[in-house]
TrEMBL record:
Keywords: Oxidoreductase. It comes from Comamonas faecalis. InterPro entries: AKR_Detox_Biosynth (IPR050523), NAD(P)_OxRdtase_dom_sf (IPR036812), NADP_OxRdtase_dom (IPR023210). This is NADP(H)-dependent aldo-keto reductase. The keyword Isomerase does not apply. The keyword Oxidoreductase applies. Residues 18-347 form the NADP-dependent oxidoreductase domain. It comes from the Bacteria.
Length: 356
């Protein structure tokens, strides 16, 4: 077991391991027996925090909608007493991003949020979700690789207050302990907190956003906003969709000779996103070489960057094998010297955030 001191999430009473097991590979790249083995090993090694979502597995498709939650639910059902040992997080999907099987592609009304939570509870075979998050904003925001806010694209139909009231009802009913956001902006976090305080509603405890060497956009106002508001960062994609593992340093994901097991190599839809940009791979290769120059593996450098940051409460990663899980967990405790951190900043100054 790794010696990890648990951390508080925001101003809530939730305490979690500073490493979180993401499960979006369960039901697509990872079959159920292997997923259960990964969950068992994570718990054995000190991870008590598990994150999933109603739309998982990823890449999202109708046939695997809810599969990750169902796999976790059956794992819990086969292990009496396990539920009390873990902190379980899930997410309600925002308005459809070309996923008409989620609420018919409509918005996210109070009724939608409640129905989605009920579905997640059934699949997870539990009475309560410890942290229930809005997967992406109902309103239009620049996210998932989009860089600029465009008011002309605004189609919001459900006020934030209505969303908060729906989440408050779930908390009051004992179906959710705490609430959080994901893929949010500084304005969004401030508005959720302002309305919660104004109307006596539950306060968001967390924001789950990308944060890694290839995307440090969190440091452009989100870090100050959340620090001052008492909202914790759950950092996702710390390995940049495996670009920061070094496996694509010789051959790009789409080239002959590249390892084919990873999502970015396996799915063209992923390569069309921010992680598939040539600039992202070029920057990853620079960071990976920087790691080797300092006697580290690329995985150690990338994860230590998140593990050691004051900005991060818990780092979320997904894996497809026990070997990957162990490698990621073994990186805990890796220290980055001031000189190495300065070298990382120097690369960022030159290349900025290519996977923003």
């Amino acid at each position: 077991m790794i010696d990890m001191t648990s951390v508080s999430l925001g101003r809530s009473d939730l305490r979690v391991s500073p490493i979180c097991l993401g499960t979006m590979t369960f039901g697509e790249q990872v079959g159920e027996p292997d997923a259960h083995a990964i969950l068992d090993r994570a718990l054995e090694r000190g991870v008590n925090f598990i994150d999933t979502a109603e739309m998982y597995a990823v890449p999202a498709r109708e046939a695997t909608f809810g599969a990750s939650e169902s796999i976790i639910g059956r794992w819990l059902g086969q292990r009496p007493g396990m539920r009390q040992r873990i902190v379980l997080a899930s997410k309600v999907a925002g308005p459809s991003r070309n996923m008409p099987w989620i609420r018919g592609g409509q918005g996210m009304t109070a009724a939608d949020i409640v129905a989605s939570c009920e579905g997640s509870l059934r699949r997870l075979q539990t009475d309560v979700i410890d942290l229930y998050q809005i997967h992406w904003p109902e309103r239009h925001v620049p996210a998932f690789g989009s860089l600029y806010y465009d008011p002309a694209k605004e189609t919001s139909a459900t006020p934030i207050l209505e969303q908060l009231q729906a989440l408050a009802g779930l908390v009051k009913a004992g179906k959710v302990r705490c609430i959080g956001l994901s893929n949010e902006t500084p304005w969004g976090v401030h508005e959720f907190v302002r309305l919660a305080e104004q109307h006596g509603l539950p306060r968001v405890a967390t924001v789950q956003n990308p944060y890694c060497l290839l995307n440090r956009s969190w440091e452009n106002a989100m870090d100050e906003s959340c620090h001052r508001l008492g909202v914790s960062l759950l950092a996702y994609s710390p390995l940049g969709y495996s670009l920061l593992t070094g496996k694509y340093d010789q051959h790009a994901p789409h080239e002959p000779g590249a390892p084919q097991g990873g999502r970015i190599a396996r799915y063209e839809s992923v390569r069309k996103q921010r992680w598939g940009r040539p600039e992202a791979l070029a920057a990853a290769r620079r960071y990976n070489q920087l790691a080797r120059d300092h006697g580290l593996t690329p995985v150690q450098l990338a994860l230590a960057f998140c593990y050691g940051s004051w900005r991060v409460a818990s780092t979320i990663f997904g894996v497809t094998s026990l070997a990957q899980l162990d490698e990621n967990l073994d990186a805990w405790g890796t220290q980055l010297s001031p000189e190495l951190l300065a070298a990382i900043d120097a690369v960022r100054w030159e290349l900025r955030d290519p996977a923003q």
